[in-house]
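Usage

Read records sequentially. Each one opens with the input sequence:
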Amino acid sequence: MSSTEPKNNVEAKKKGGKIVLIICIVIILALIGVVIYLLTNKDGEEQGRRNVVVNEDNVDEIIEQMQDSDRVADGYYEMTMNSTWYFENGTAASENAYVENTVTNTNAVYFDVVRSDTEETIFESPVIPVGSHMEEITLDKALDAGTYDCVLIYHLMDEEYENEVSTVRVSLTIVIEN
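and closes with the structure output:
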C-alpha cells in the first residue's frame, strides 16, 4: 500500500464535504428567496385589494370584478345594514343603526366604523355570529352634532374566530342631531 492512498482519500472527502456544504448554502438561499418573493407578492396583492370602498355608485362594478376574478375567498357573507345611522346626540344609542350577519352566511364577522376625514375608529363591534345582529349601537367616541362620512369595515372570521379571512369596506353616513 502506498502512502498516497490515504492522502487521496482525505482530499476526496474534503472535496465532497465542500460540495455538500455549497449545495446546502445554495438550497438555503433559494428557500429564503422563495419566502421573500411570496411575502412580497402577497403584500402586493393585498395592497391591490385594499382601500376599495363599496358604495351605491360602484357596487355593480365591484360585483362584476369579483365574479370575473380567479380568486375565490375562503368564505363569503351577505351584508344587511342601514347606510345612514341617526343619533339623538353624540353619546346616545342610535335610533336606527342595524347590522346583521344573515343566516345564509358561512362565517362570523365583526366590524369597525372609521371616520373618512380623520381615519379615527369611532366604533369597534364584538364578533357577530351567523344569524345574529346588532342594533341600538352606541359609538365608542362621542361626536358633536353634524353629518359624518364614515367607512364600515367588515372583517370575516374563520370558523374558530381566530383569524381574519377577508375584509369589505362599505360607505356609512352618521348623523348626530344635537
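Summary fields computed downstream for this record:
- Residues 39 and 45 are 10 Å apart (CA to CA).
- Residues 42-49, 70-74 have pLDDT under 50 and may be disordered.
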